[in-house]
Amino acid sequence: SSGQARVVKCYNCQGEGHVARQCTQPKRTRNATWYKEKAMLAEAQEAGQILDEEQLAFLADPGVPDGQVVQTIIPNNVAFQIEDLDTYDSDCDD
């Protein structure tokens, strides 16, 4: 490392200096309104409108913490491979 301290970032509010467990802001619900707002901001950005920092942070937020995505994908892939093992076995004589 280059000797600089890493900045901790909250997944809840995208703030710096604390983690989600210590966050005092309420979690933002991920409902239809959340997706509509995100789509409107993306359209505005594509049209060349200048967005402020908060709007850019909202657009950059995938809505799912990185670790949660990995935890969901790996078990599903493993289950698929186990259940359909014979399907991909070219030497299967059944």
TrEMBL record:
Name of one Pfam family that matches: zf-CCHC
PROSITE patterns according to UniProt: ZF_CCHC
Domain of life (superkingdom): Eukaryota
Gene3D superfamilies named in the record: Zinc finger, CCHC-type
Keywords: Metal-binding, Zinc, Zinc-finger
Tagged with keyword Metal-binding: yes
InterPro entries: Znf_CCHC (IPR001878), Znf_CCHC_sf (IPR036875)
Molecular function terms, GO-annotated: nucleic acid binding; zinc ion binding
Residue ranges annotated for the CCHC-type domain, each copy included: 9-25
UniProt-recorded name of the protein: CCHC-type domain-containing protein
Organism, scientific name: Tanacetum cinerariifolium
Lineage: Eukaryota, Viridiplantae, Streptophyta, Embryophyta, Tracheophyta
